[in-house]
Specification:
The complex is a heterodimer of chains A (741) and B (101).
Chain A: E1 59-64, E2 73-80, E3 93-104, E4 112-123, E5 127-130, E6 134-143, E7 151-158, E8 168-174, E9 179-188, E10 192-201, E11 213-214, E12 229-230, H1 232-239, E13 241-245, E14 251-252, H2 264-274, E15 286-292, E16 302-303, E17 322-326, H3 343-363, H4 384-391, H5 395-399, H6 406-414, H7 417-420, E18 442-445, E19 449-454, E20 458-459, E21 466-473, E22 480-483, E23 493-498, E24 504-506, E25 519-522, E26 534-540, E27 543-544, E28 547-548, E29 554-562, E30 570-571, E31 575-579, H8 585-594, H9 597-605, H10 614-626, H11 631-641, E32 648-652, E33 655-660, H12 664-680, H13 687-703, H14 707-723, H15 728-740
Parallel strand pairs in A: 10-13, 10-14, 10-15, 15-17, 20-31
Antiparallel strand pairs in A: 1-2, 1-9, 2-3, 3-4, 4-6, 4-18, 5-6, 6-7, 7-8, 8-9, 11-12, 16-17, 19-21, 21-26, 22-25, 23-24, 23-29, 27-28, 29-30, 29-31, 32-33
Chain B: E1 2-8, E2 13-21, E3 24-33, E4 42-48, E5 51-59, E6 64-72, E7 75-83, E8 88-94
Parallel strand pairs in B: 1-7
Antiparallel strand pairs in B: 1-4, 2-3, 2-5, 5-6, 7-8
Classes of the chains: A alpha+beta (741), B mainly beta (101).
Chain lengths: 741, 101
Amino acid sequence: MKDPNEIYSETELTPIPDGPIPGPFPPFPEPIPLPIPPIPRIPWPPDWWRCFRRGPVSGRYEGPLTTLAKATGFLDLRIDVDPGYANSPVMNRISGDFYQLFRISLPGIPLIEWKTYTESWIVDAPKVVWSRCQVEITGIVRFWKGTHPETSVRVVIPWSTFTPAGPAEAIFTETGGGTRTFSCIRKSDSFRDLQMEIDVCASVNAEPILPAYDTTWHSTRPSGLPQRGLTINESYREAGVSVTISPDRTIIDDSAAEFTTWSPAELHDAMETHFSQIGGGWPKWNMWGLLAGTYEIPSVGGIMFDAAAAYGGAGEAPERQGFALFRNHSWFNNLVAGTPANQDQAWAMRHFLYTWVHEAGHAFNFLHSWNKNRPDALSWMNYDWRYDNRNGADSFWSSFFFRFDDEELIHMRHGDRASVIMGGDPWASGGHMEAPSAAMSMTEGNAPIEFLIRSQEYFDFLEPVDIELRIRNLIDGLPLTVDARLSPEFGGVVVYIQRPDGKVIQYSPIFCKLGIADSKILKPKDVSVQGEDRYSEQVSLSYGKFGFYFDRPGVYLIRAIYQGTGDLMVPSNVHRIRIGHPYSKEEDRLAQDFFTSAVGMNLYLQGSRSPHLQKGMEVLESVADRYKGSSVGAKVAARISSSLNRPFFRLKDGTMKKVASPDPKKVLALTDSAVKLFEKEKKRSFNIPYRKLVETRVASRTALGQKAEAKKELATLRRILGQRGANQPVLDSIKSYEDSL
Amino acid sequence: MATLNIALQEGFDGDLVLIKVNDLEVFRKDDVKTKRLLDLAEEFERQVPDGPVKLEVLLPKRNLHGKTEVQALQKIYVGISVSVSGPSIDFIISQKPFGYA
């Protein structure tokens, strides 16, 4: 029995660990034990005010790893265990994101700092023990991706009298003993912070531009619905996201006489033109909204257009950056600014609010409720008429409490960062599969380099998969020296591929090359001619150490990490491609001959005249001929042709002997259809292979003494690339080659 | 005459779709796909006589067939979806426009 005069510890004041925050006095024990224990000491003067906390514990905390002196680890921690804001449901989760911190200090410019995100985790069922002056939260950590030893976390958040909670100490312990401790200061009552920029078309530039709705304005509402004013900010604040809307708006001129409706591509183009945050590295917590006139399908009131074309979006990665509302939709006919005078006006404002919140919700990677098997969800992401069809007329608005459902709140607050953040995982993709560590790392802050993957979105079955890797200097006023060896063979770039079955694998090249860095100076973005601030390389991913990487039809996600020189790590965007199905049974059968190591090696080596790989070369020549009108034939021909421009030597009887001579005539014959296709198809993704092919053909023509024809092909290349918007330095380099012949 | 607004909504995935009104083919299109961002694949309007109208939907590639009767008066909205359970063709009939977002 405790001495009644002994001071009680904090935890002893909390007999119900998961219960409500206790009052300042020790609880009365129940049932009363016999014999009656001594009456605890009642402090005098009363100290009920001691540890009276200001504000909730829930919110966002961040801070560095403190276990090691020179550690670069960093934690973004989200605590969701008590009400953080009025009408904001508690999800009883804690979650976080791990980062690595990087800093570059250069004379004459401010310190450049950025964080590279590495992975996210969540505790689904935390145990919460409240004490008078602290809360302790423990649980098992579930990582969204990758393989980890079982890991537990213990978070202790203290507070003093009349102060906010924090700092939080988070200790991660792995089975086997590894421990990491982070000290995180309190940053916000919200779990995420988002910057939103909203522009408006001139034709609809009249108040109200943004929604403001009082929940009591329309009479069809739940009986217990709390009265409050809702805006975009307030609706998201209740969801746990602090949205800051930029006060500056661009008025977009949409007055052209022939222009009547918007398509997804036009909306995306408007975003690229007017969204001030479109440049720089993505993903980031930024979103663009446009109030426009009419969509190309007039029954559409709003659209998050920044998704794959197959889903009805614009089809340009990175995705989920922007959305639009259409003011001329019949939903908004009765919309007025201020307090509505009748129920129709209230209905219109309520739908205006609903559409803004709904579309921004898509940008958080929300599907519609019924697409998630929750057709009866009372959520911003449902359609009222769909819900009513299942549950009765007006049932949606009679029951809807102006909120996202619990699963959506958990995703938005605690989901895997890549699947939530704008410009992260493509819309509707579930990037939650097992992955090698670092496969899903992302940049936050001001990385000095943008690292981008681009290619065509769709590849025919059997078509070689080549991607463009591009690095770009993002620093104003300072040239940057980088290692321009972007092929994975040099080890400075690591490529990850998520296959249609969800498995993430690392691309492994056949060869690993060692050598000195190929240093290139990227000029500062603010002073260079467009193009001098960047460097691109085409990289083939079709075949590698473990065979063919794209041998099944379906959707693949690709991302890469640029490690460059020194202590640098910059992840790329997530790039989605689709591999088509075989057109015919014949093509399906051909796959058996195509997906062999001999063919793969020829694709990798860009053709070979080794007798060991002869069969593979024959298959590829046959494919080039059979599919010569298509990108499959063109790409295969372009790939293998350059080997025919060179002699081939083999070791015979101890000496190297020439076994094949250059065959420039064959190169020209093999690639004739390919060059025509690259000229005709106005795809930006063909620019690099087209240029490479012309260079191969120019070498053949030069060998045959056809300099005039060679110059003509270069002139055509220069003209066509110019029409397709290639940068001046590229065109200048072609001209210089042309002049040198 | 009344107007029938027909929307092909959820569940279309590269389908050949035939629609008949009172046994007359009024719509035929191949490769109909639902745009998941909107839950809409196609939307069109046809004029029909006032009164009861027989509406038939056929998806020959999937051997699916559905029919319903609509009381056409002024303007009526018909949403057609392919339900994964079954699969079957489902109809939503409304006097108010659907709206997509």
